[in-house]
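Input record (one chain):
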Amino acid sequence: MNKKYDYIIIGQGLAGSAFAWRLYFNGKSFIIIDSEAKFSASKAALGIYNPITGRKNVKTWNAEILFNELKNFYIKVEESIGKKILYEKDIYRPFKNNKDVNEWNTRLGNIKYKNYLKKIDEKGIVTKGSGYLDVKKYLKETKKYFECIGRYKVDNIKKYDLLNKNNNIVIKGFNFNKVVMCRGINEKKMNLFSEIPLTPVAGNSIKIQSNLFGDYILNKGISVFNNNKNELFAGSTYNNGYINDGINHLKKRIEKVLNEKFKILESYFGIRPASKDRRPLVGKHKVINNLYLINGLGSKGVSQSPYCAKELFDYIENNKKINKDINIDRFKS
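The corresponding structure, as predicted from the sequence alone:
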């Protein structure tokens, strides 16, 4: 007899993991199915969360809500797995030029930046409210945890594996009330949500051996930080498409930042799923009533996935509306 689950989550990246934990914390039955794709965005992510982002250094969308949810969520996960995965670190940004100095001085007088600016001098500025998630440990421990309780399975689900019977999806012998797709850029292959504009953005990051340079994240064209093991993580690159060609760019940047020789210990490559308006994609399929999606997290999966998981859970279980800024209905004709 087939076991009946409330949910199936297809994909165990940052989006799928966040939704799985949300279900677990709320006592829902589910199973995660993951293909363990080699070049997923989550596997190449540095894991930095930062309230002030982009080339123009502006406060990120929905910052207060996102970052409050982020901390509460990952601390709860840490308590469940019994391991540390979230680390608070300030970000140091050296000034590029006088224009940069003037813009940051202007932000000092802006109330919306008040909680994020720590100190400024003639060389640069330190911002707070940031840090990093050990993404690889988080994903590994999440898989291990749910595998031990029979909530995880390795499989590569294809479009023809999904059979819709009276709004109850059956996949390879399992019955589910609800199916949540968290497949990142691979969603384009399945094409169930054809109206959603997903764009591939390639990214590289590396782990190098070098002397520790401070208990902060350095933001100087690239981001560099240490993990207290005489290792530095650096990245990430952003290139539209699927091509893996960012390592040389990273090496040149790091040489300028460190001004010393270094040894590359590991390199990482992944394809981020980005939406047209750079907002997450959360919602329900336009035809199949029990098919849902979390996608389009781009380079902000660490900070956006807990919030998106909560929004979708509350929509399904508590009949609340999904924030219109992330609801996939914004792209439906």
